[in-house]
Amino acid sequence: MKLVKAAVILIFLKVYSTYAGTSLIGSPTNLECPLSLIAYYWYKKFIGGTKLLKDGDKYYGTSNKTLTIKNFELTDEGFYRCEGFTTRGSYSMSHLIQLFVAVDGGWSTWNTWDACTSTCGTGQHRRRRYCNNPTPANGGSKCQGEDYEYRLCSPSLCPVDTGWSSWDSWGVCNVTCGTGQQSRRRYCNNSNSTMGGAYCQGEEYDFNSCVLSSCLDPEHQQSTNISIAVRTVSGVLLIIIVIILVVIYAKRRRYNSKKEPDYDIPDIRRVQPYIYEETHVNHAYQNDKQSAEVDVYSIENNRY
User: Fold this and answer.
1) pTM for the model
2) E strand or H helix that includes residue 56
3) What domains lie within the chain, and their CATH numbers?
């Protein structure tokens, strides 16, 4: 019997669905012989040889056009071939059929949670799972989903550092002329230091140069000071003199007001005798004065 040598063509069958000719692991898998033969023989190719398959717990239809692998496992992948006599009486064999099994990946169980990423405040725990149950093989799909999972954790309160308040306004310049300095201040009271927080870093006072009008020279400044002092003393003396004059005037007016009698119109009759007496005295004084003048005139004329 002459064997016909055939070309070897690899056919990849991905067994991860249920449509015809394919199967999931653990399900039956069918292989179709591409030849039309009177009798069929199925072989599996191994390294170093081939094995004739027979019906049993693992295979069915080993003498038919369709070979059924009952409970498919990963060890069942490999190269298969059918052969036999044709209707013409010649012996023929098929191309090698490679049963290539694609394994979809599956997740392992989750690992334990890692330590918190923060020693205080809010952090995260993390845990992981692996796509190794089974590991994807032969082009099978990878696991769907995330391999890491996170959750919040809060071990303890974190230290709170203090902070500066805003700066106060600038103070007045420390000179009256020329160049001086002014300062401003801030306070470390923006928050209270807790849980070992740090105190405010930086300066509490801030300084800035200030420029006022130019200062006068010492001689001019001294003359100016003397002039100011003289004007000041003169002003004070003038005020004192005015006060003294006002006091004298007030006392004199008060004295005169007590000396002069205060006559009312209805009481004029009571003062009439005084008026007549004063008038009579005045007339007598005038007469005596005229008589004295006449005597003096006569004496002068007799002398010459």
Assistant:
1) 0.38
2) none
3) 1-102 (2.60.40.10), 107-158 (2.20.100.10), 161-215 (2.20.100.10), 219-277 (no CATH)
